[in-house]
Amino acid sequence: MRIALDAMGSDAFPAPDVAGAVLAAQEFGDTILLVGDPSKIEPELAKHKTAGLPLQVIPALDIITMHDKPSVVGKAKPNSSMHIGMKLIKDEQADAFVTAGNTGAALSIATLYTLRRISGVKRPALTAILRVGERAVILLDVGANADSKPEWLEQFALMGKIYAKSALGLDDPRVGVLSNGEEEGKGNELVREASALIANLPLRFVGNVEPKDLLSGDADVVVSDGFVGNIMVKSLEATARTVSNLIRQEIMAGTLTKLGGVLAKPAFDRVRKQTDPFEVGGAPLLGVNGVVIIGHGRSNDRAIKNAIGQARKAVSGQVIASIATGLQERVETERR
Questions:
Q1: Residue of 120, 121, 156, 286 with fewest CB within 10 Å of its CB?
Q2: Which of 67, 54, 76 has the alpha carbon at shortest distance from 2?
Q3: pLDDT surpasses 70 at 139
Q4: Which residues neighbour 16 within 8 Å (Cβ) at sequence distance 6 or greater?
Q5: Do the Cβ atoms of 308 and 16 come closer than 8 Å?
Q6: What domains are there in the chain, each with its CATH number?
Q7: How do residues 97-135 score in pLDDT, each as one tens digit?
Q8: What is the DSSP string of 5-52?
Q9: Are strands 282-286 and 291-295 parallel, antiparallel or unpaired?
């Protein structure tokens, strides 16, 4: 494969981005196209053993920061690493694009300036892949569409199901709608109308899903509007961080607890690995006509490497073609 990586994406670019690309090239053996400013990328590459690795630098001199407005950068920075990276997919010079940069800018550039939407897609959806023990749960939308319509959530459910099956290897993924209660009829008008539509899709619909059900692994794909989904993800991240800090403080509070902490460290490390978002690395922007994986701005080298791994899964699973086919089959079913 040829994976384009936004080398100017992470908060600390390009160090973690370049290091992650090196790790990915070593582990996967695919060609990694480092898109960005060569004067910043090449000194970082020089810090690593790259002899024989399939790494290539693609110049892109405009840099999109986390503070840039998505509505502006599309036209204002046409030579950005995001523009160039996504154009590589459009021109069939890359199979996927990975970025830990400005999410809003990535969404805008993908949908309005480069890749566009898959035919039939009403709105793209940002996703999050949450680790629940040894399982993965896909939550979408998590920010692309703060105000949504029932038919958009219907498509999110179908795209999420296809991604879970094609890229994550789940044979019969369970799909639910995030709500304030499990019972049928719970939720606001959007949830109720979307649930009625999703129930008629060719998928395994499990109905309403509360946050506790999401975390207990009772669904594989959970659908919501972007406003609720974004708050859900940020709440989970904040809770995990707070609980981790509290445990650390209490362990260090006394001699006995310090000793117990040392003995329990292997268990804590296993829990941390199961809940660490960097173990996933990134999640797809579903609905655009190309594989785009978006990671967290705080990504380290391991997260970048794993985000590239997610891109490889999406390409191998032919996610874009599968979504296009699934939507077309849905249209034909409605016509009949």
A1: 120
A2: 54
A3: yes
A4: 10, 100, 299, 300, 301, 303, 304
A5: no
A6: 1-121+287-336 (3.40.718.10), 128-278 (3.40.718.10)
A7: 999 999 999 999 999 999 999 999 999 999 998 887 778
A8: EETT-STTTTHHHHHHHHHHHHHH--EEEEEE-HHHHHHHHTTS--TT
A9: antiparallel
pLDDT for residue 284: 94
By C-alpha distance, which of 250, 278, 279 is closest to 264? 250
Q: How far is CA 115 from CA 11, 45, 109, 142, 336, in A?
A: 25, 29, 8, 20, 31
Helix then strand then coil, % of the chain, to nearest 5? 50, 20, 30
Q: Sheet of 204-209: strands edge to edge?
A: 55-59, 31-36, 2-6, 96-99, 291-295, 282-286, 125-132, 135-140, 221-223, 174-178, 204-209
Residue 56's identity, in one-letter code, is Q
| 271 or 68: which leads in pLDDT | 68
Q: What is the pLDDT of residues 235-270, one digit of tens each?
A: 888 887 888 888 888 888 888 888 887 887 887 777
Rounded to a whole number of angstroms, the CA Rg of the chain reads 20
Q: Model-level pTM?
A: 0.91
**Structure tokens belonging to residue 218:** 């009772």
Q: Give the pLDDT of residue 280.
A: 80
Q: Give the chain's mean pLDDT.
A: 91
Residue with tokens 């080298």: 301
**Contacts for 61 with CB less than 8 Å, ≥ 6 apart:** 37, 79
